[in-house]
Every structure is written in structure tokens, then in C-alpha cells.
Amino acid sequence: MNTNNVVLFERINENVALITLNRPEKRNAVNQDLAEGLWAAVQEVENDPKLRVAILAANGSVFCAGADLAEVAAGRKLGTPQGGFAGFVYAPRTKPWIAAIAGTAFGGGCELALTCDMVIAGEQAQFGLPEVKRGVLAAAGGAFRIARVLPRPIAIELALTGRPMPAAEALSWGLINKVVPTEEVIAAATALANEISGNAPLSVQATLALARDAADKTEPELWKLTQELGAKVMTSDDAKEGPRAFLEKRAPKWTGK
Predict the structure, then answer these.
(1) How confident is the model over 43-57, as pLDDT tens digits?
(2) How many CB atoms sit inside 10 A of residue 30's CB?
(3) Average pLDDT over the chain, rounded to whole?
(4) Which of 131, 157, 184, 195 is catalytic?
(5) Which of 14, 92, 222, 235 is the 20 to 30 Å CA partner of 72?
(6) Mean pLDDT for the stretch of residues 191-207
(7) Residue 10's pLDDT band (boundaries 50, 70, 90)?
(8) How far is 74 from 169, CA to CA, in rounded Å?
């Protein structure tokens, strides 16, 4: 399936989708077609019960250069009402997304990476929020999301200097999950996605929801959410299948119900 010609959608297998930004000649800069394509990809992942994990990648040596300035100058939109910038940065998502970044992810590209739940990077990958060098603001979530991932002084330094952070340094600070040879980025992201998709989908989604809310909610609020999500998970068919498969020494057959 192609969401459109600038965002490609394919199934790696039954449970994992690969979404690829496909404007390499424009360094995968975000225009309205890309935003609408990425929003459509989010909807496809959310609405397909068989899909459990999504990988966001890009063709070319640049993951995403951020906003297409020619589009900005022309007064065109670069997002969707439901998803925000690139149709993605605040799109409602219940399933995990892994960014597979082989090259540079600056500005809006870094913000797309920060929107994902996990990041696999190539050895040549770099991350940065250079907006302060352009007199603008990392307004697609970057200015605050970076401070949720990195230690506060490091996040502030990165955001206020606008300097690039190489993959090895990003790994040392916990900005990304793993650094691999550039040609192995998709394979490594797929391996991680397959490991996650082998687990009970309702359990994965409930756990992800709690992890995402951990920085925003109080402990009483998190306990309340745990109880609400736990009631749904523990009464599911999968909650019966997991222990049964363990006792029978076989792989579980998850239904997501």
C-alpha cells in the first residue's frame, strides 16, 4: 500500500509496518503531501488489528530536514488538524513506533524522532534542534520533548546551541536505543519490532500508555490509570492464553482480545 508517493507504506510481516518518507531529493522535508501521507499511515496502523508495531524510516541520506521552507514561504500548511506538524507529532497513537534513522535528523526531523517511542540510529546519524540559529522555535514538540528524554542541562545545551549531536553521544545520554552500522538500521529496527510484536498486543499497548504518561501524571493518577488498564488487560482472552501457553510449553497465540 502507498499512502501517497511521498510516504510509502508496506508490511514487513503480518504484525509490523514500515513507513518510509520518500522525498530524498528534498531531504525528506515536510510538505503537505508528506503530512497527509504520514497521517494516513498512522490511521492505517491504528485501524488494522493485525499491525502491532510501526517503523518510521526515510529514503536518502537525510531522515528529515524539517519543514520545507519553500512551502512555508508560499503559505502552505505542513500538518493536519488531528496530527499536527507532519500529521504526526501529536497524532493519537496506541501502538509503539520505532524511528529507524540512518542519516541526519535536524529540526522537524528530530521532532519526528522524539515523537516515536524508540530510536535505532546508524553510525553516521546526527540529531539536533537548530531552530535558535534560524530565529524560530522548535514548536513541534522538540523544545519540551528533548528535556523529557535527556538530562535537563544536556537538553538545554542542545536546544540553546542548536548544535548537532552524533549518534554515539546520543546513545550515551539515552536519546536513542541503539547504534548500528548504517546499512543495518532497518534490520535492527525490524528485529526490535518483531520482539515487541511477539508479546500480547493489549499488554503492550497498556504498558506503553503508562510509560508515555509517566512524566506527566502524578503517582495517584498513574495508579488509577494502572487499575483501569489492568481491568481490561486481565479480563482479556490473551490474559488466559499467556499462562496457558507457558504451562503447555508452546508459543502463545495472541488475538488482541
Answers:
(1) 999 999 999 999 999
(2) 31
(3) 95
(4) 131
(5) 92
(6) 97
(7) very high
(8) 37
Q: How much is the average pLDDT of 88-106?
A: 97
DSSP for 167-214 reads HHHHHHTTSSSEEE-GGGHHHHHHHHHHHHHTS-HHHHHHHHHHHHHT
Q: Looking at 111, 157, 228, 241, which residue is catalytic?
A: 111
Q: Is 131 considered catalytic here? A: yes
Report the half-sphere exposure of 89 (CA within 13 A, side-chain side).
25
| Contacts of residue 232, Cβ cutoff 8 Å, sequence gap at least 6 | 202, 206
Per the DSSP assignment, residues forming a β-bridge with 119 are 99
CATH 3.90.226.10 for the 2-197 domain, yes or no: yes
Q: Is there a catalytic annotation at residue 111?
A: yes
Residue that is written with C-alpha cell 535536524 in the block: 106
d(CA 29, CA 225): 37
Q: How far apart are CA 51 and CA 193, in angstroms?
A: 11
pTM score, two decimals? Answer: 0.94
